[in-house]
TrEMBL record:
<feature type="binding site">
    <location>
        <position position="58"/>
    </location>
    <ligand>
        <name>K(+)</name>
    </ligand>
</feature>
<dbReference type="InterPro" id="IPR017953">
    <property type="entry name" value="Carbohydrate_kinase_pred_CS"/>
</dbReference>
<keyword id="KW-0067">ATP-binding</keyword>
<protein>
    <recommendedName>
        <fullName>Bifunctional NAD(P)H-hydrate repair enzyme</fullName>
        <ecNumber>4.2.1.136</ecNumber>
        <ecNumber>5.1.99.6</ecNumber>
    </recommendedName>
</protein>
<feature type="binding site">
    <location>
        <begin position="130"/>
        <end position="136"/>
    </location>
    <ligand>
        <name>(6S)-NADPHX</name>
    </ligand>
</feature>
<dbReference type="InterPro" id="IPR036652">
    <property type="entry name" value="YjeF_N_dom_sf"/>
</dbReference>
<comment type="function">
    <text>Catalyzes the epimerization of the S- and R-forms of NAD(P)HX, a damaged form of NAD(P)H that is a result of enzymatic or heat-dependent hydration. This is a prerequisite for the S-specific NAD(P)H-hydrate dehydratase to allow the repair of both epimers of NAD(P)HX.</text>
</comment>
<feature type="binding site">
    <location>
        <position position="445"/>
    </location>
    <ligand>
        <name>(6S)-NADPHX</name>
    </ligand>
</feature>
<feature type="binding site">
    <location>
        <position position="329"/>
    </location>
    <ligand>
        <name>(6S)-NADPHX</name>
    </ligand>
</feature>
<dbReference type="InterPro" id="IPR004443">
    <property type="entry name" value="YjeF_N_dom"/>
</dbReference>
<feature type="binding site">
    <location>
        <position position="380"/>
    </location>
    <ligand>
        <name>(6S)-NADPHX</name>
    </ligand>
</feature>
<dbReference type="Pfam" id="PF01256">
    <property type="entry name" value="Carb_kinase"/>
</dbReference>
<keyword id="KW-0511">Multifunctional enzyme</keyword>
<keyword id="KW-0520">NAD</keyword>
<feature type="binding site">
    <location>
        <begin position="415"/>
        <end position="419"/>
    </location>
    <ligand>
        <name>AMP</name>
    </ligand>
</feature>
<feature type="binding site">
    <location>
        <position position="263"/>
    </location>
    <ligand>
        <name>(6S)-NADPHX</name>
    </ligand>
</feature>
<feature type="binding site">
    <location>
        <position position="161"/>
    </location>
    <ligand>
        <name>(6S)-NADPHX</name>
    </ligand>
</feature>
Amino acid sequence: MKIFSAAQIREADAFTIAHEPISSSGLMERAAGKCAAWLEDHYSPVHPVYIFCGKGNNGGDGLVIARLLLDHGYTVRTGILQYSPKASADQELKLQALQEHYSSTVYDIGDISDFPALPANAIIIDAIFGTGMSRPIEGWTAGIIHLINDQRQKHVIISVDMPSGLMADESNRHTAVVQAHYTLSFEFYKLAFLLRENAPYAGEVHILPIGLHPDYITQTPARYHLSDREIMRTIYRPRDPFAHKGTYGHALLIAGSYGKMGAAILSARACLRAGAGLLSCHVPQCGYDIMQISEPCAMCITDEDPRYNTHFHQDITNTNYKAIGIGPGLDTQPGTAKSFEHLLSGWQRPMVIDADALNLISVYPFLLARIPAGSILTPHPKEFERLFGPSANDTARLDLLSKQAVSLQIYIILKGRYTAIACPDGAVYFNNTGNPGMATGGSGDVLTGILTGLLSQDYSPKAAVLLGVWLHGYAGDLAAAHLSQEAMTATDIISWLGKAFQEGI
Ligand SMILES: NC(=O)C1=CN([C@@H]2O[C@H](COP(=O)(O)OP(=O)(O)OC[C@H]3O[C@@H](n4cnc5c(N)ncnc54)[C@H](O)[C@@H]3O)[C@@H](O)[C@H]2O)[C@@H](O)CC1
Ligand SMILES: Nc1ncnc2c1ncn2[C@@H]1O[C@H](COP(=O)(O)OP(=O)(O)O)[C@@H](O)[C@H]1O
Ligand SMILES: [K+]
């Protein structure tokens, strides 16, 4: 699913109005009608509804919602924030329509003292600003936003299209923004919903389709995308009935050190469960028995070093590996750094680089330029900062992420609630599977194994990152559904990977 900017959403509205028999006022009726229907599905008329409207089209939506709910027997009070003498044409039109039958329910808000006392069970609808937000809210208008937020413990707050105060595609943290329980957003996800710094604002997002013109959606390029099942279906390739183990590649996993062999086991199991044909694991001597006993399906190469991997660069001279994954539990010994440097000089195909391998690159930044094109880096935010430096805010970090992926011609997976996958062509895909149960040691090691397993089967790096991150989160969601977010561990993500292949695509 494409994620459009606020400017593109305005274009999509205008395109729809120009190419379909619908006016802007009609489109507003349709959008607000979807909101009203959602509200009626979720709340009965015993709940008094308090709608706060701005003077733009978001306010217009609020006025239509007010009329429709009143028509259906709800008690509604609609306050209009008079922060500007001017209103949009459709807002004026919808105000007239509301006042025609229900003028006694409408009042003006010109200061915080006009904020109403809310009865028990009241629902707050925030229709003050939508995608037209162009600057932080100030003065008494900001005061009204704060008063709305003060009601959060007692009343449900529902934002129309966007929480008022939030800008669709720019960072504006530390400003007055509605903290909604639900956001009913039209047609598309907005970039703002996917940023960590905006976590307090949108609440649960429901996307309501309003029939924007499909030609605009397919023809307009977008920089940001949200991964979905449709994309996975175009990527996934069922196995060939005549396949043999050579068909799906020989993967090499370089992982583990004394005290961190678990990371290597998790990656190895995940790599095999993702479908690799053969897997060899390069481990330090202390890890030999552990790996052989824990994972009989994997072969084992033992380092000369008893505790660390320091001689793995030699492996690539003997076997024609299809994919290499490096990093989980690796440690950052000088010998490991040397061997990594040699490996990067001799290996030219895409590889998966995670955890301590990323930390080594942070310490020896000249290695960045030696990463083979098409490789996959999987940093969490701290590792990302160590690699590429700090960012002022989430949108700045997103720009940095994309810039680095383009300039190094690699894929960078910035892990989190909505993992962001930056591609060498500048596109960024957000992933929506996964849950906080995955915030547990070893989850990232599992992802590295899955990605290595997919690369070894000849999935392109782009296909591997999109499918791998999706399946990893999907398996995590299945694990959480069966075990709870608290009780699930990284091992359970691997256990549910099979079901994720069956049900998630
Ligand atoms: N045909 C359409 O264009 C449709 C638009 N829709 C609604 O329209 C919304 C966008 O409407 P608008 O573009 O009118 O924008 P908004 O309703 O978001 O408000 C923008 C207005 O507020 C002013 N403003 C922006 N930031 C401000 C601030 N910090 N302090 C004070 N004033 C500020 C702007 O100058 C402008 O007049 C969408 O979010 C959606 O709710 C929907 O009705 C669907 C159809
Ligand atoms: N709240 C969350 N929602 C969705 N996914 C999450 C959440 N917390 C963690 N994850 C996922 O779990 C993985 C954790 O990776 P990482 O921090 O590297 O773990 P580790 O180093 O312990 O293996 C990432 O893929 C991340 O996207
Ligand atoms: K709003």
